Each structure stands twice: as C-alpha cells, then as structure tokens.
Amino acid sequence: MDLVAACNAFVYVSEHGSFTQGAAAARIPQPVASRRIAALERHLGARLFDRSTRQAVLTPFGRDMFPSARRLVQLVAAMEESALSARRAPLRVAVPDTCARLDLARLIVEARRHGVYLDPLPAAPEARTDLLRSQEVRAALVAVPPGEATWRVPLGLAGASPPSSGVMYLETLRAGRAAAGQRPRRVWIQPEDDVPHIRDRMTRIRDTSGLRPTQVTVAHSLTTAAAETLDSDDLLLASGSQATELGLYWSRMGETTLTRGLDVATTGGEDPERLRTALRECIARCVGAVAADEAAR
C-alpha cells in the first residue's frame, strides 16, 4: 500500500466531507479514493469513516488519525517543493570569456531542457580557477592539455587581410622580410591561451623561426589583441569561430598544430558528467570546439 497516497485521499475526503468532492480535489477518480481509504483502514486496523450515512463522516478513530495524516501529507508536499527548488537552483559555472553571449544564452536554454539551470560566469583562465577554489562557482571550464580535454578547439592565425593560402608559417614573419622602416609583424596570444602547453610551444616556434622576442606577445585582453590585429598586419592566435566573430581571416599554422583544451572541474559536490554528456555539444558550440572525428583529421 502507498501510505502517502492513501493518507492524501483520506485528508481530502475528510476536509470536503464527501468521497466524490474529495476525490475531485485530490484529482483522482472516486473509486480510487475509496479503495485507498479502505486499504488505509485495513492497514490501521479500524474504520476511518462512518459508512451508515451518505456524508463522509469521520469515526472517533478517524478523528484521532486525521491530524497525523494531514501532517504527513503536508510534510510530503513541503519535501516535493524543496526538491523542485533544489533542482532549479542555479548551477554557477565559470566559462571562458571568449564565449559569445548569444551562444551562452542558447546554452542556458538547452540546459533547462535537461533539467539543469545554468548561471554561466565568463572569466579568464586563471580567474576561473580562482573562482572554483574560492567556491564562488560550483564548476568551471578549465584549460587542460588536449590529451586530457573533453573539448578541443583548433587554433590558427587570424588577420585582417585575406591570406595567400590556408596555411601560414611563422618564419614568414622574420624581421628581415619586413619593409625598410616597418616594424616586424607580431602574433598576439590572447589570455585564454596564456597557458604553458600553448604559450611555451609558441615561444619555441618563435625562437626556431628566427623571430624577435617581441614578435610573439601575450595580450592583456582579447579586445586589445583584436584591435591591434584589425589596425595592422599583426596576427591573432585564435580559433576559427573567434576569427569569424571578429571579422578576421583564419589560417592553419604550418609549423605545428595547436589546440585549446578544456575540461570540467568542480568543487567536489557537483557531478561533472552532467556537463560532459547532456550539454557536451552545446558547450562545444560556445567554446568553438570541433567534433572528435573532425579533430582527428
């Protein structure tokens, strides 16, 4: 016997003084209400209603049982309300500040369809780690090497002018190739990619290609780096989706393949698989990641 369902029927019928009206208020058929109350009477060992009248009149035993039954029904209702509120509690997640706001809005909508109420907080890589450490967020998309990543974002070189081919080599930026009196072209690394597995590889390529130290520079912000790129022949290390958003032309790097890797980190009380599975594709769109089969090519 479902004790909660039986008590619910008992309370509604008692309060309305009628099996028909009580069942309607409980949104169950009248025969179902009668069966549940009969089962409750068998379970408790005594009659709850006087069956000799047409009204639903409580017996003395029924009057004694009514307060406890009502408390149980109210407690279950409160528990269900608490569970609903807990499920709808926003999951604050630190995400890359490179994510487009429209993509984040679509991520929020998609998450709701999976019963997850996201509150994304855009932040730079180090800031996302700090937010997670201080427990200001419950989860964060953090930078990791590509081999450990759930989302992989191919990087290339983006510029304001159309490239001569789909592949660009850093060695073509050597200072000796610049026109007289013209400063050498630079490659800007945005804060999102100021991580060892990307920054250090770019530095090594810079050195082996014979570029000056200042020709590969970490920018204070993506906005600054984009402005420098739009106003000169400098290049921005970026994903293809970022290049499109900024109105830049994108090319692959000839010397190496660089990939921005991202994974979910949590405070320990949150299940990261909710983000890695149900929302995997939508998060991929936000960060500009490619599908696994495309990344393998």
TrEMBL record:
<dbReference type="InterPro" id="IPR000847">
    <property type="entry name" value="LysR_HTH_N"/>
</dbReference>
<dbReference type="Pfam" id="PF00126">
    <property type="entry name" value="HTH_1"/>
</dbReference>
<dbReference type="GO" id="GO:0000976">
    <property type="term" value="F:transcription cis-regulatory region binding"/>
</dbReference>
<keyword id="KW-0804">Transcription</keyword>
<dbReference type="InterPro" id="IPR036390">
    <property type="entry name" value="WH_DNA-bd_sf"/>
</dbReference>
<protein>
    <submittedName>
        <fullName>DNA-binding transcriptional LysR family regulator</fullName>
    </submittedName>
</protein>
<comment type="similarity">
    <text>Belongs to the LysR transcriptional regulatory family.</text>
</comment>
<keyword id="KW-0805">Transcription regulation</keyword>
<dbReference type="InterPro" id="IPR036388">
    <property type="entry name" value="WH-like_DNA-bd_sf"/>
</dbReference>
<feature type="domain" description="HTH lysR-type">
    <location>
        <begin position="1"/>
        <end position="59"/>
    </location>
</feature>
<keyword id="KW-0238">DNA-binding</keyword>
<dbReference type="GO" id="GO:0003700">
    <property type="term" value="F:DNA-binding transcription factor activity"/>
</dbReference>
